[in-house]
Structure formats: structure tokens, C-alpha cells
Amino acid sequence: MKLADALTRRPLVLDGGLSNQLEAAGHDLSDALWSARLLADEPGAVAAAHRAYYEAGADIATTASYQATFEGFAKHGVDAVSTAELLRLSVELARDAGADAGREVWVAASAGPYGAMLADGSEYRGRYGLTVAELERFHRPRLEVLADAEPDVLALETVPDTDEARALLRAVRGLGVPAWLSYTVSGGYTRAGQPLTEAFALAADAEEILAVGVNCCDPQDADAAVRLAARITGKPVVAYPNSGETWDAAARTWRGPAHFTAGRVAGWRDAGARLIGGCCRVGPETISRVAAELSGTGRS
Predict the structure, then answer these.
(1) Does residue 32 register a pLDDT over 60?
(2) Hey, which of 22, 70, 247, 253 has its CA 20 to 30 A from 279?
(3) What are the tens digits of pLDDT across the range 83-97?
(4) pLDDT above 70: percentage of residues in the chain
(5) Exposure string over 66-88, b if 16+ CB within 10 A, otherwise e
(6) Is the per-residue pLDDT at 149 higher than 80?
(7) 268, 213 in Cβ contact below 8 A?
(8) 193 vs 125: CA distance, rounded Å
(9) How many CB atoms lie within 10 A of CB 175?
(10) Could you tell me the sign of the dihedral formed by the alpha carbons of 188, 189, 195, 201, in that order?
């Protein structure tokens, strides 16, 4: 079943943070490639992390390609041909991990923002000093490769500002794979400070976009954002905030208390969210509780 059709039947459960699951299994993700490094070094570890989320009840696994870019791998001596192979592998690993799920599951190919490649926390600020056209040229080659691997959806995620959203909306045209667009936000604004009414409106008439929403933000910020995205776009909403902790880019660590609770998901569902899960620091145990919370909404 196509993902768009599945969304008309019931809300679907997204996975949680891939990096925290890999770290919990003992893998070092301290370099600039983050979890993408394991695509080359330990692909079996990536597959195991995906299986953990499927087993927890996730309907959709998000690939380890968030920080996988031609430019980022080139800095580590990986050529373009090998990078393309690793991008395709990210989709294959997620697909293969779901083969024994015993139910229909889907794969979202992650495409992080330009700032993710910089590995300096820029995805939580935006405003890179690049034009929309330059950002489109950055994103398009990777998206072409990911689309060629035939995921069910492209996850255009952790987008910090409307310039990058415009670039991504251009970059997915004609690829033949639907996408969701999710911003990282603070209050009622993108991380770059633009009103979410403006940000969500960009995707309202984009045929390629099947869902709009937020990720890697405070769970409290997701509450109002879900309602707004549904009202502005009329599309299904995607919501997968982080644990509520704050990323310290200089120290490359998370700080502060966690306050993601599965009890919030009913509110997101009722406000229009059809794709619900977690981002950084949200693990399989929490996703299991999210799936249980949504189990009374038509899960079959």
C-alpha cells in the first residue's frame, strides 16, 4: 500500500532517534558524519537500530542519510560514486530491516538541511548566507540518488528557515517520490525567526508534499505547530519532536531535562497529525508507548 493511502486509514508511528539508538548499542558518533559514518563502517549496526524501532511498533523507519552528503563524505575521502552507493544502501538497510516485521512497514529517506553537513549546529539557526538557488543545487543531487533507491517517502527534515524550504520544494520536483517537509521550530517561529504561518504556507500547494509539520523541537512547541500546520496547509501533519533536551553544538552533547511523553500524542493526532514519532533522544521504549497510545485509532 502506498504511504499516502495508508495515511487515510490511520495515523502511522514513526521511529525515534537513530543516533541515540546507535550510541546505546556502544557506537561512537562523535565525528562530523554522525550516524552516516556507520553506513560505510558498520551497516549491520544501522540495520539493527532500524529493527529495534520496527519491533517497538514503528510503522516507518527513517534512513541513516540525514548527514550523508556528497560534500560531507568528500571531506572524509569518499568519492561521489561511493557516496551514491552509501545513500542507496541507507534505504536498502531500512527496507531489509522491515522485511521480518510481520506487517506492512515503510521507509522514509532522510535528507537533512545544509547545516547538518556543516556539523556545527547550523541546522538550529539557518541563514547560512546561501541563496535559494545555491541551496537547491546542494540538495538536488542527493535527493535524486535517494529517490532512485525507491523509498516510500523523502523526509525533508529539520529545516530551519523558509529559504531552505523553498530550495527543497524546488529540489523534489519531478523525482517521482512523495516527500514530507518538517521544520525545526522555537515557539511559533522557524529557528531562523520566520512565522510558522509563512513557513507552512509554502508547502500548501506543493503536489510532491504529502505531509507538513515539525521535528527536532521541544515537544511543547509541537502542540501549537501541529494545529497550525493542519489549518494552513490542509495536509496531513508530521510531528516528531526530540526529547525536550537542548543540543550544545560546541560540546556536541544534549543538555537539560527530557519531557517527551507518549501522553502528548493523542493531542497531536486529534489536531491533525498522521505521522507521529520522536527525534533525537527518543528511543524504542518511548516509541513503543507512542504506538500503544495510538493503538485505539484504527490500528489493524
Answers:
(1) no
(2) 70
(3) 999 999 999 999 999
(4) 93
(5) bbbbbebbeeeebeeeebbebbb
(6) yes
(7) no
(8) 9
(9) 16
(10) negative
Confidence of residue 22 (pLDDT cuts 50, 70, 90): confident
- Residue 224, judged by CB atoms within 10 A of its CB (0-12, 13-18, 19+), counts as middle
Say how many CA atoms lie within 13 Å of 288 toward its Cβ: 7
Q: Are 90 and 136 in contact (CB under 8 A)?
A: no
Rounded CA gap, 83 and 73, in Å? Answer: 7
Which residue type sits at 230? A
What is the grid cell recorded at 113? 538541511
- Residue 278 is placed in which grid cell? 520522536
What per-residue string of b and e applies to 7-42 under the rule 16 or more CB within 10 Å gives b? beebbbbbbbbbbbbbbeeebebeebbbbbbbbbee
Nearest of 239, 183, 237, 241 to residue 210 by alpha carbon: 237
Burial of 300 (0-12, 13-18, 19+ CB in 10 A): exposed
Give the model confidence (pLDDT) of 277-287 as tens digits.
999 889 999 99
Average of per-residue pLDDT across 178-185: 98
Query: Do 50 and 59 contact (CB within 8 A), yes or no?
Result: no
Helix axes 132-148, 162-171, angle to 10 degrees: 40
Gyration radius (Cα) of the chain, Å: 17
Q: How far apart are CA 240 and CA 108, in angstroms?
A: 13
The strand pairing partners of 273, in sequence order, are 237
CA 20 to chain centre: 14
Angle 24-156-282 from CA coordinates, rounded to 5°: 25
Quick: pLDDT tens for 234-257. Answer: 999 999 999 877 767 676 677 777
